[in-house]
């Protein structure tokens, strides 16, 4: 009796594994490959590497932070003090 339970459990695991593999294969096949980077040198051109993207994001963050620090402080209401 235990053998039938064990065989049923193994069969269920095999079926679930096959279905999961099939679903993962379907999602991988439907995602298109990214286009190759354009060879343009304009200012609006996206960075070619992850390192360049990281540097660009850091520069944008620094510029935004500098602009925020130069802005005039907001007035704080008396009841918030």
Automatic annotation (TrEMBL):
Residues 72-81 have a biased composition (Basic and acidic residues). This is Uncharacterized protein. Residues 26-81 are annotated as: Disordered. It comes from the Bacteria. It comes from Ottowia beijingensis. Residues 39-49 have a biased composition (Low complexity).
């Amino acid at each position: 009796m235990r053998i039938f339970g064990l065989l049923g459990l193994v069969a269920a695991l095999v079926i679930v594994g096959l279905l999961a593999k099939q679903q993962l294969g379907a999602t991988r096949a439907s995602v298109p490959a990214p286009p190759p980077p354009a060879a343009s040198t304009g200012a609006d051109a996206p960075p070619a590497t992850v390192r360049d993207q990281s540097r660009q994001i850091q520069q944008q963050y620094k510029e935004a932070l500098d602009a925020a620090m130069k802005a005039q402080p907001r007035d704080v209401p008396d009841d918030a003090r």
